[in-house]
Design a protein that fits this description.
The structure is a single chain. The chain is α/β, with parallel strands linked by helices. It folds into 3 domains: 131 residues, no CATH class; 163 residues, 3-Layer(aba) Sandwich (Rossmann fold); 161 residues, Rossmann fold (3-Layer(aba) Sandwich). It is 29% helix and 22% strand. Helix 12 crosses helix 13. The structure holds zinc ion (2 copies). The site of one zinc ion has 8 residues, from loops.
Length: 495
């Protein structure tokens, strides 16, 4: 790797021939090299375990180059070729159609770049991924990091022990915890064990909301531990910390960084559909590292691997409050789409809603698509004017959820956007059109998991209104019943 000067700019050279090596540029001062620790605090902190673009680094090119010459900085090509096929080294993209070319000011050629990870800054053929090969920052953490007075349920305790073991022995482990089991507390002991063993640990999740919510909780229980909280636009991206909480997108900037990654909600969008995020998680791990997966709803393949003994896992089949999970009831509602087009709702759906209004019980009603939900909203508002509806692009989404929490609205219609993450203490849940393909087993288990979460209101009904039962509906119900059975058998549910 050399640097070249072109158009008065210092640039790393990968494929230019008429280059001038940086050492021939007389104006570049060579700073004294200090090999004793701490060595160049900021750049070391910024780059350890990362793969950054020049644009991500606020330091001068001269400084970067001098560290490169000391052997402390590494460059990897942003795009490599497998035969004639380009591969993006940052996000793993191999699809030809997701590359494009542009006349590049840096290398002065027509340069190929990756479109798949473009939102993290452009990786082109002349782009180096810059990393750190020097001493690793010392975090120097003292004993007794965890300040938490709570207690774990028996189910949580078993899972917690398995997480500690997996982390210390660099193994993979899945924690399959029902909705409302309290999975965050299960991680505390494992995080502390990792930190005391001077392991760098990351909690990654597909959803920004989860990062924002987890950060203050972990800061509260690990008050002496520096924590970086990473999502699009976060301020912490230059920090080196022993504990990182990040969206899976942000892991695209890491390379061989973590001794342990805890991946929360492995089954959630967009992780499930974006291959680059799965690649990012693998890249961010050290070759010898632990991987903890957390989910309430593993996919079919993983469920099978668990049952056949191929995947080490622990279930937490019961909620913290020791009541069983509400089991969904199926209720046939005929061709509800056709009725909605005629501005009508199926009789049993209408009955269900009216009953909740009569007994003043709040409810969430899920719909597969926005236009049909809006039709239903107009109909239901004739009975109760202050009903609301939310979906992913709704700018008032947060306010409406807040209103529901404050009990200012009796009923909230929603798309799958509220299938996970939200907790309302005392609600019933219905799905209208549960046969729609959008309602997978995992989505339905999550939706059912919204009911009966609070220890004050552990009961809640879950009704799937459908126009023909699907396999996914049956699987969801079977999964919930199996967890309840296991919970009873292990003495984790009071009956
Ligand atoms: Zn890429
Ligand atoms: Zn270029």
């Amino acid at each position: 790797m050399r640097f070249i000067v072109k158009n008065d700019q210092l640039i790393p050279s990968f494929h230019l021939e008429e280059s001038v090596p940086i050492t021939k540029v007389p104006s570049i001062p060579q700073p004294p090299v200090n090999h004793s620790f701490p060595y160049n605090h900021n750049l070391q902190h910024l780059l350890t375990g990362k793969q950054l673009l020049l644009d991500d680094i606020p330091h001068s090119l001269e400084e970067i180059q001098s560290h490169y010459e000391n052997g402390y900085i590494t460059y990897r090509k942003g795009i490599e070729y497998l035969g004639k096929k380009p591969v993006c080294i940052r996000c793993g993209n191999k699809e030809r159609k997701r590359f494009a070319s542009f006349p590049c000011a840096r290398c002065g050629e027509i340069c190929l770049y990756c479109r798949r990870c473009l939102m993290m800054g452009r990786v082109s053929e002349c782009t180096p991924l810059i990393g750190w090969n020097g001493p690793v920052p010392d975090t120097n953490l003292s004993r007794q990091l965890l300040r938490w007075n709570g207690t774990l349920s028996e189910g949580q305790m078993v899972a917690s022990q398995h997480v500690v073991e997996a982390i210390l022995q660099n193994q993979e482990h899945l924690v399959w915890a029902v909705c409302g089991a309290g999975k965050t507390e299960v991680l505390f002991a494992g995080i502390e064990a990792a930190l005391l063993a001077r392991k760098r640990i990351c909690i990654a999740t597909p959803r920004t909301d989860v990062v924002v919510e987890l950060t203050p909780r972990l800061k509260a229980v690990f008050p002496g531990v520096p924590i970086a909280s990473l999502y699009g636009g976060s301020e912490d991206r230059h920090l080196y910390t022993p504990l990182t909480i990040a969206t899976t997108h942000q892991l695209l900037r890491f390379y061989h960084a973590f001794d342990s990654i805890i991946l929360d909600e492995v089954d959630a969008f967009p992780y499930t559909v974006e291959e680059s995020l799965r690649y990012a998680v693998i890249q961010a791990r050290k070759p010898e590292s632990a991987m903890i997966y957390l989910t309430a709803t593993p996919n079919k393949k993983w469920q099978l691997e668990c049952r056949s003994g191929k995947r080490p896992y622990t279930t937490i089949p019961a909620r913290f409050h020791r009541h069983p999970l509400p089991v969904p009831e199926f209720s046939w509602c005929g061709n509800w789409r056709k009725l909605l087009v005629k501005n009508k709702l199926p009789g049993n759906v209408l009955q269900w809603v009216k009953h909740r209004i009569d007994i003043s019980k709040q409810a969430l009603v899920f719909f597969p698509h926005i236009p049909l939900m809006d039709k239903a909203l107009a109909i239901l508002r004739q009975f109760v004017p202050n009903i609301e509806a939310v979906h992913a692009e709704d700018p008032d989404r947060k306010e409406k959820v807040q209103k529901m929490r404050a009990k200012e609205i009796p009923l909230l219609l929603t798309t799958t956007i509220l299938e996970r993450g939200v907790t309302f203490p005392n609600i019933d849940v219905a799905v209208v059109g549960a046969e729609d393909a959008i309602f997978t087993e995992s989505a339905l288990v999550q939706i059912a998991g919204r009911a009966g979460r609070s220890k004050d209101y552990p009961e809640g009904t879950v009704t799937f209104f459908h126009y023909g039962k699907t396999k996914e509906m049956l699987r969801a119900k079977r999964q919930i019943k199996a967890m309840n059975r296991e919970g009873i058998k292990r003495g984790l549910i009071d009956i």
